[in-house]
Design goal:
Shape: globular
Radius of gyration: 18 Å
Transmembrane segments: 24-45, 52-77, 97-114, 126-148, 178-202
Largest sheet: none
Number of strands: 0
Helix content: over 70%
Keywords: Membrane, Transmembrane, Transmembrane helix
Number of domains: 1
Strand content: under 5%
Order of helices and strands: HHHHHHHH
Length: 233
């Protein structure tokens, strides 16, 4: 466990991570399997990128991933986590994870609807909603990287405050969230192009990267001082 028991702030510590990951490997792998299991109904119920799949993923996959992120966040502090703690984290993270996932899933679903309509009709005006929803999806996904770990770490903080703090932090330091999203994309590509068995390893790795990106971008959580944008630094 971390020396001072802090669970709310501070940048990620690689030495603390390495000291705790090996002992917590069963919990991390179990969490990865849980995320993969949550993705199975999405794949079979609505295969391929489509609006229904986006919403289902927000309701099923994101909450399971939020539980793994909660454990990954503790690993960065040097804590050891167990499978029992993972099981306890799932119900506690479900509501926060679903809410965070829907924030990104709604614009993604709207983008997919607009894209499908544009593909079928080729109406030029459809490029406007497609562009707006596409841009909103990109922004929401980047903010989600910071908002999800912060939300499960601070369950008493209102969603609005978490997302406002995360959005401001991402605007100032976008590189860590971009890296986490890039790793997730690389993991999906590896599962599709190389072997589906890689999927068991991807959620855990992405969760560790997501937790690190959140702590790097918003090191003190929602207590991070947010300067007034009307003033110059």
């Amino acid at each position: 466990m971390s020396a001072d028991g802090d669970t709310t702030g501070g940048p990620p510590d690689l030495r603390a991570l390495f000291s705790g990951t090996w002992h917590s490997l069963p919990a991390v792998l179990t969490g990865s399997v849980l995320v993969c299991a949550a993705a199975v109904p999405v794949v079979f119920a609505s295969p391929g990128p489509n609006p229904v799949a986006a919403v289902l993923a927000a309701v099923l996959v994101t909450p399971a991933f939020a539980a793994v992120v909660a454990l990954a966040d503790r690993l960065w502090l040097g804590d050891d986590v167990t499978v029992r703690e993972l099981a306890a984290a799932v119900p506690s993270c479900w509501r926060r994870g679903t809410g965070a996932g829907l924030v990104a899933a709604v614009p993604a679903a709207l983008f997919l609807v607009a894209h499908e309509m544009w593909t079928q009709t080729a109406q030029p005006w459809l490029l406007v909603p497609m562009s707006v929803s596409g841009a909103a999806t990109v922004v929401a996904t980047l903010v989600l990287v910071v908002a999800l770990p912060t939300s499960v770490r601070e369950p008493a903080t209102p969603h609005a405050r978490v997302w406002i703090s995360a959005a401001y932090a991402v605007a100032r330091r976008p590189v860590p969230p971009i890296g986490a999203v890039a790793l997730a994309g690389l993991g999906v590509w590896a599962c599709v192009a190389l072997s589906a068995s890689v999927a068991v390893l991807v959620p855990g790795a992405v969760a560790l990267t997501t937790a690190a990106a959140a702590r790097t971008t918003l090191p003190c959580g929602t207590d991070t001082h947010l300067p007034d944008p009307r003033t110059r630094s």
